[in-house]
Design brief:
By secondary structure, this protein is an alpha+beta fold. It is about 55% helix and about 15% strand. It has three domains: about 5-50, Ubiquitin-associated (UBA) domain (Helicase, Ruva Protein, domain 3), CATH 1.10.8.10; about 60-110 and about 155-195, Tetrahydropterin Synthase, Chain A; about 115-155, GTP Cyclohydrolase I, Chain A, domain 1 (Orthogonal Bundle), CATH 1.10.286.20.
Length: about 200
């Protein structure tokens, strides 16, 4: 099957993958665009994982304020080289992460960052709710775990749906950025303020 340059270009725009990778993805999937996207995502995850242990000590602090100064975000995003830290692609990624934090108010970057006492408390609340709804003990445990997962999806940045494409999580968006940029990228830390909010 013949793959056109336009098809490759469209796939590149959607995935940020290289020209030859896009061509191969389309060829391997008989020109099926969606399957080619999935193929590249899976491949991208592998590439991103290979880069995960590289040192990322360069980067930027992205500052963002929203709603006429009602919400402010500062996020540190790291990469491996000063060259990439200055690139427009990397800076756009950092800006998108700041927007995400402003919009969806995550509390932690990864689920490993959630203190165990908070997880225990949320698990207990979910279990009690299930029991109050009349669910049997064995079922209420599964329901509690499901609700705990939902809680993590709301409060953990990397598990949140990306505000510009809810078919992607921030973790998947990060993986795509790592593949596109070719360096390890780490969302190191962030702070979000809102006018009138009590600080913890």
């Amino acid at each position: 099957m013949s793959i056109t340059t336009n098809e490759i270009k469209e796939l590149r725009e959607k995935t940020s993958a290289g020209f030859m990778d896009c061509k191969k993805a389309l060829e391997e999937n008989n020109g099926d665009f969606e399957k080619a996207v999935e193929y590249l995502r899976k491949k991208g995850l592998a590439k991103a994982a290979k880069r995960a242990d590289r040192v990322a000590s360069e980067g930027i602090l992205e500052l963002y304020n929203h709603g006429d100064g009602r919400v402010g975000v500062m996020v540190e995003v790291n990469c491996e080289t000063d060259f990439v830290a200055r690139s427009e692609t990397f800076r756009n990624f950092a800006h998108e992460i700041a927007l995400q934090i402003a919009a969806l108010s995550p509390l932690w970057i990864t689920e490993q960052d959630i203190p165990e006492e908070i997880l225990s408390k949320e698990r207990e609340i979910a279990r009690e709710r299930a029991l109050q709804e009349g669910k049997p003990e064995n079922v209420s445990e599964r329901i509690a775990e499901g609700r705990l997962d939902k809680f993590k999806d709301e409060v953990v940045l990397l598990r949140q749906p990306y505000i510009r494409n809810d078919k992607l999580t921030i973790q998947q968006y990060l993986n795509e950025a790592i593949v596109a940029i070719g360096e390890n990228i780490i969302i190191r830390r962030f702070t979000r303020w809102a006018v009138g909010e009590k600080s913890n």
